[in-house]
Design brief:
This protein is α+β, with helices and mostly antiparallel strands and 581 residues long. It contains 23 helices and seven strands. The protein folds into two domains: 24-437, no CATH class; 444-580, Histidine kinase-like ATPase, C-terminal domain (Heat Shock Protein 90, 2-Layer Sandwich), CATH 3.30.565.10. Strand 6 and strand 7 (572-580) form a beta hairpin. Helix 6 (141-164) packs antiparallel against helix 16.
C-alpha cells in the first residue's frame, strides 16, 4: 500500500515551531501556562472521587499522583522518535470521555474499579493503535461523529446533575447556588462568542476563576475542604494508590466504547497538530497518528496502574498553541516538569478539592455543548443517505433511553445489561451493528473495457460515473473517483502500457468505494500525484474542542485520496484506488 507524499513547510505565523527551542525564560513561562491549563481538568478527578466517597486526605494524595500521570502522558506524546509519540505539543487531560463511565464505576465498586477499568480502556486504545491501518475502513463520519455526539450528551447529563445537586430549594441559600452556577456558565459562553485570540481559548479558565470568586463570596467553599488544604504541607511526595485494581465484566462495554472514543479524539488532535505545523499540509501522516494514539493509550494503561481515571489528548491546549504560535515540543517537556512540581505540593494540587459542584457542573455543560455540535458536524460532513439516517437516529435514541429509563435496562439479564451499561456503549454498539447490517445487499460491481483512444477512455469514465450514480454513491465521491481514474489511465497509457486495451472496474459496498484499473505492461513504481479534490478544513480553532472535531473531519476527508495499491498479477497489472464512503 502506498501513500501520497507531501512536502513540509514552516507556517509563517508560528513563533516557535515544533522543532525549535524557545529561550529558557520564555520556555519556563510557556511550560507553566500549559501545566496550569492541564491541571484545570483535575476537576473531573474530584467529581469521580466525590462519587466514590473518598476521604479528603486520600483525595489530596490522589491529585498529586494525577499530576504525575499528566506529566507522563505529556512526555510520551512529545517523543519525536521511536514507536511511541507523535512528537507534538499535545498534552493529555483527564477527559470528559471517561467521566460518565468512571462515575458509574465509582458508584459500583469505588476507586479500585475505576482504576482497573481505566487500565482496560487504555489497553483497548493501544490495541486500536496497533490495528489502526486495518480499522480505518470502520472510521466513518457517521460512527466517528456519533461517538463524539453521544459523549457530549453523557457529559452534559453529568454536568447538569452536578449543577442541580445542591441544597434544597427551600433553603435561603438556594438562589445563591443557582446564581453562582449561571455566572460560571455565562462567563465562558460570552468569551467564546465575543472574545478574541488566546482569551477565547482560555474561557474555561476564566469561568473557573469567576465561579470560584463567586462561590467564596457567598460561602460555598466547604470548611472541611479548606481545612484540609490549610493543614496540607507544601512539599510531600505523593504515593501511588494502594487500593488495588478491580474489573467488572458488566462495565467492559462502557469502557471499551470510551477507549474507542479516546482513540478517535487522539486521531483528530494529532491530525490538527500536523496541520498547524505544516503550511503545505494536505492529508494526515498515518504512521505519526498511529504513534500518537499509541502514546495516548499507554498513558491510560500507566495511569490506571498508578491509580488514575482516564486521560485523552487535549484539543483546547492544541488550539491554544495554534493561536499563540508556540507549538514547540520543548514546551511539552517544560510543562511536564512543572506538573511534577505540582505533584509534590499538596497545597497546589489539592486546590481543586475546593471547587463546588455548581462551578464544576457548569463548566462540564459548557464543554458538552461543543462536543455535541462537533459530533453533529462530523456526522453531516458528507451527504447522509437513508442508511445513515437510521444509524444516527436509532443509535442516538437508544443511547438517550439508557439515561431516561434506567430501571428498564437495570432489569435486563446480566449478559445483556453489560452491553447497555452506558449511553455511549449502547449507542456505539448499535451504530456498529446497524452499519454492518445495512451493508447486506450493498455490494455492487461493474466492469468496463477501455482502449488507448481518447473517445474510449472518456466513454469508460462516463459509464463508471453513471453506474456510481445508480448506486447512490455520494456525488463528491463520484467526482473524486472518476477524476482520479482518468488521471491514472492517462498516465498508464503514456508511460506503462504495452497493450492498447485495459479494464476499468468499480466496487461499492456502502462503506468503501474501490476503483481498479487493469492493464498489460510494467508495474508503476509510483502513481502520479493525484489531485486533491477536497481541501482540508481551515484553521477555525475558535473553541476548546475544535482541534479534536476539525482534525477528525480532516482525517476522514483524507481517506478519500491517500489509499492506493499497485499489484502485478499473472495477466497484467492492477491499480486499486480506495475511497471511504
Amino acid at each position: 500500500m502506498s501513500t501520497i507524499a507531501q512536502q513540509s513547510e514552516r507556517p509563517p505565523g508560528l513563533i516557535y515551531a515544533v522543532n525549535e527551542w524557545p529561550p529558557l525564560p520564555r520556555l519556563a513561562m510557556l511550560g507553566f501556562q500549559y501545566a496550569v491549563m492541564d491541571a484545570i481538568y483535575l476537576i473531573l478527578v474530584v467529581i469521580i472521587m466525590r462519587h466514590a466517597h473518598v476521604p479528603r486526605a486520600v483525595g489530596v494524595n490522589l491529585l498529586g499522583v494525577a499530576c504525575i500521570g499528566l506529566a507522563i502522558g505529556t512526555v510520551l506524546q512529545g517523543l519525536p522518535r521511536g514507536p511511541v509519540g507523535s512528537g507534538f505539543l499535545a498534552p493529555p487531560v483527564f477527559s470528559a470521555i471517561f467521566l460518565a463511565p468512571c462515575v458509574l464505576a465509582a458508584q459500583i465498586g469505588g476507586l479500585p474499579l475505576v482504576f482497573g477499568m481505566t487500565l482496560f480502556a487504555g489497553a483497548v486504545e493501544v490495541l486500536a493503535a496497533l490495528l489502526f491501518k486495518r480499522l480505518r475502513v470502520l472510521i466513518t463520519p457517521v460512527l466517528s461523529g456519533l461517538t463524539v455526539f453521544v459523549v457530549g450528551l453523557e457529559l452534559g447529563v453529568v454536568g447538569v446533575g452536578e449543577t442541580l445537586d445542591v441544597r434544597h430549594e427551600d433553603l435561603p441559600a438556594f438562589p445563591l447556588h443557582v446564581t453562582v452556577a449561571m455566572l460560571t456558565l455565562f462567563v465562558p459562553i460570552c468569551l467564546s462568542i465575543w472574545g478574541r485570540g488566546a482569551l477565547k481559548l482560555l474561557c474555561t479558565l476564566c469561568g473557573l476563576a469567576v465561579g470560584m470568586i463567586g462561590a467564596a463570596s457567598i460561602g460555598l467553599l466547604r470548611h472541611a475542604a479548606l481545612a484540609t488544604i490549610v493543614e496540607a504541607s507544601w512539599i510531600t511526595l505523593p504515593r501511588p494508590a494502594t487500593l488495588g485494581l478491580a474489573f467488572d465484566v458488566a462495565l467492559a462495554p462502557a469502557f471499551l466504547a470510551a477507549g474507542i472514543a479516546a482513540a478517535l479524539r487522539s486521531v483528530g488532535v494529532v491530525t490538527t497538530c500536523q496541520r498547524i505545523n505544516n503550511a503545505a499540509w494536505q492529508r494526515p501522516d498515518m504512521s505519526n497518528i498511529q504513534k500518537g494514539v499509541l502514546a495516548d493509550g499507554l498513558a491510560n494503561v500507566l495511569g490506571g496502574a498508578l491509580g488514575l481515571p482516564g486521560m485523552s489528548a487535549a484539543p483546547s491546549l492544541v488550539g491554544l498553541s495554534g493561536v499563540t504560535g508556540a507549538t514547540s515540543r520543548a514546551i511539552a517537556f517544560a510543562a511536564a516538569l512543572v506538573l511534577l512540581i505540582f505533584s509534590i505540593s499538596p497545597k497546589l494540587s489539592g486546590f481543586f478539592l475546593l471547587v463546588p459542584q455548581e462551578v464544576a457542573g457548569a463548566l462540564l455543560v459548557f464543554t458538552a455543548c461543543f462536543m455535541i455540535s462537533g459530533g453533529m458536524q462530523i456526522m453531516l460532513s458528507r451527504a447522509v443517505d437513508t442508511r445513515a439516517v437510521y444509524v444516527i437516529g436509532v443509535s442516538t435514541l437508544l443511547g438517550l433511553s439508557e439515561s431516561v429509563f434506567p430501571a428498564y435496562f437495570t432489569d435486563l439479564p446480566r449478559p445483556v445489561r453489560s452491553l447497555t451499561s452506558s449511553p455511549l456503549a449502547l449507542a456505539l454498539g448499535t451504530g456498529i451493528l446497524l452499519s454492518l447490517l445495512f451493508r447486506l445487499g450493498t455490494r455492487q460491481i461493474v466492469s468496463i473495457a477501455w482502449d488507448d483512444s481518447e473517445p474510449a477512455i472518456a466513454a469508460a469514465i462516463a459509464a463508471l460515473r453513471e453506474k456510481m450514480q445508480g448506486w447512490k454513491v455520494n456525488g463528491a465521491l463520484i467526482d473524486t473517483g472518476t477524476e482520479h481514474a482518468r488521471e491514472v489511465i492517462d498516465y498508464v497509457v503514456k508511460h506503462r502500457s504495452h497493450h492498447s486495451a485495459g479494464m476499468l472496474r468499480g466496487l461499492y459496498n456502502g462503506l468503501e468505494l474501490r476503483v481498479e484499473i487493469s492493464y498489460q505492461g510494467s508495474p508503476a513504481t509510483h502513481l502520479p500525484k493525484l489531485r486533491v479534490t477536497h481541501a482540508p478544513t481551515g484553521g477555525e480553532l475558535d473553541d476548546e474542542e475544535a482541534a479534536a472535531y476539525i482534525g477528525l473531519r480532516n482525517f476522514l476527508r483524507s481517506l478519500i485520496t491517500d489509499r492506493q495499491q499497485i499489484k502485478a498479477t499473472k495477466t497484467g497489472v492492477v491499480v486499486r484506488l480506495f475511497y471511504a464512503a
